[in-house]
């Protein structure tokens, strides 16, 4: 087990579908999708993936970094 890691999730609320009137709905969709998929990801320093909205526009990323 590696100690001292940080999970960082960044989403640009002004990008893609998040910039519209349904910002909360879109952010909720992104968080549910990635929240459900975390059990399939090796959470180790250096892990990283881009986040996409429902139109497949890149709107952010998550990463694991040493603390």
Structure overview:
About 10% of the residues are buried. This protein has one domain. It is built from one helix and three strands, in the order βαββ. By secondary structure, the protein is α+β, with helices and mostly antiparallel strands. The mean pLDDT is about 95. About 20% of the residues lie in helices and about 30% in strands. It has a three-stranded antiparallel β-sheet, covered by helices on one side.
Task: Summarize the topology.
Blueprint: E1 5-11, H1 23-37, E2 48-52, E3 58-66
Antiparallel strand pairs: 1-3, 2-3
Keywords:
single chain; 67 residues; alpha+beta; three-stranded antiparallel beta sheet; 1 helix
The number of helical elements comes to 1
Order of helices and strands: EHEE
Strand content: 25-35%
Largest sheet: 3 strands, antiparallel
Extract low-pLDDT stretches.
none
Instruction: Estimate the helix proportion, in percent.
Output: 10-25%
Number of strands: 3
Widest beta sheet: strand line-up: 1-3-2
Mean pLDDT: 93
CA-based shape = elongated
Rg result: 13 Å
Count of individual domains: 1
Structural class: alpha+beta
N- and C-termini, Cα separation: 14 Å
């Amino acid at each position: 087990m590696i100690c001292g890691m940080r999970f960082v999730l960044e989403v640009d609320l002004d990008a893609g579908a998040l910039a519209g009137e349904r910002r909360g709905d879109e952010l909720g969709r992104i968080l549910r999708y990635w929240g459900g998929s975390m059990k399939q990801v090796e959470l180790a320093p250096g892990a990283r993936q881009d986040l996409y909205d429902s139109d497949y526009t890149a709107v952010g990323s998550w990463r694991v970094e040493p603390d």
